[in-house]
Structure formats: structure tokens, C-alpha cells
Amino acid sequence: MKRENVTHLLATDLDGTLVGEKELTSLLFDYYKERPYNVQLVYVTGRHYASTMELIKEEELPMPSILISDVGTEMYDLNDPELHERWKKTLEEKWNPAEISRIVQSCSGLTPQSIPSVHRLSYFAESDEAVEEVKRKLSGSSVPYKLIFSSGRDVDILPPNAGKGEALSFLLREKGWEKANVLVAGDSGNDRDMITLGYPAVVVGNCQKELKQLPDHPMIFRAQKHCAGGIHEAWEHFFEKTPVKNSI
């Protein structure tokens, strides 16, 4: 497989991170156009594929090099269609959605979301207690899983090796981009595992409480500005003033 020589890469969530304040999003991309290097774009979102494509069109966003959708369970590269199949194969090994669904049905306070993904079970939670109940019951079973609770209501149950962080790590290895200047950006709990990968990362100023509770770390920049304005702040902090190497 041919590997591109990528020097700078933005791996960003969409809603509430890259998208949310249109003027700041435009300013960020204008800023990137002025750089002496190209910035490779990777969108890492909780939206499913069709919903993401609609958002890209509505917000007039540039198309990314790679799209990681469905909370890190789907991966698309128009120049490498097999990438999706390689990632899918890794997720199939320990995924038992029928057993997980059976366990969740015995819990109260969870309403299924209609999500067109075979590697993701999603629910709306009525309370924190409902989330704790399903965690207890899943942990007491032998079924492998990863549960992500975000934005105070969204529960995603995934294969144990899925999630935004696992997907991004897989992508960087597959493409040979581990040594690029990578900035990771997010605003909610489903971004946590990629924010804490060890690459330079930004928690945008409008982040949800679950990211405000992250321990301080030199690789995690807490932006003052919201959405794409926070990405802009972090980019200058890491790559324009004091360039750093990632710690993984």
C-alpha cells in the first residue's frame, strides 16, 4: 500500500468541535490555507455515514481524507476502499450484539436509538442510574464490550476494541502517519479515548462536563474559545510557537 508523506494532521470530532460556530470554522480553514504545509483532515464523529455527509454539505466543510464515523466503528477512505473492510474485520472478533441487546433489555431507563450500524448499539439514558445498572449487568456477564456515555444522555455499546481512540490509532498505523504532527480535537465523552491517546489534543472551550473532569496533562490543551476557535488556539500552541513530539 502506498503511504502518503503527511506532516500535519487534524483528527477532529464534528458537532460541538469543528462545527458549532460557522465563522470560527471558516477562520480555521482560512488559517490552514496560509500554512506552508498541508493539513490532512480526519473527521471522527458519532454520526453515521449518511448523517455525516449531510452535515458536511450543510456546513460547507471540506471533504476529509478519512472519515471515522459511528463512534469509531466505521472507517472510510475513498482512495483505499479496503480500509473499511480491514477495520471491520478487527471488530468482528469479539462482538456479540445479540447477547448485549438481551442484557440491556433487562435494564430500565434506556431507550434504543435507530442507528444504521452493525457494530454499535445506541441508547438514550434517562439517568446516570440507568447507565450504572447496564454497566453492572454487562460487567457481570462474560460478553466483551465497551460502553461510552456522553453528553449526559447518549449510551453507545461497541466491540471492546472499538471507539474513536482505537480507530484513530489503527488508522495512523495503517497509513504510517504516527510521526506526523497530529492534533486531536473533541468536546464530549465519546472523544475521551482519542483525546488521551498521547498526541497533542484540545478540549474545546464549550466541552461537556465529562471532558472538564479530565486530569491535567501537557499533551491536553484546554482552549478558551469554543468549537473551531479552540482548535485554532491549540494548533498555534502546539505547532506554531513550541512544536512538540507526541509521547506514544
TrEMBL record:
Gene3D superfamilies: 3.90.1070.10, HAD superfamily/HAD-like. The keyword Hydrolase applies. Signal peptide: none annotated. It comes from the Bacteria. GO terms for molecular function: phosphatase activity. Keywords: Hydrolase. This is HAD family hydrolase. It comes from Fictibacillus marinisediminis.
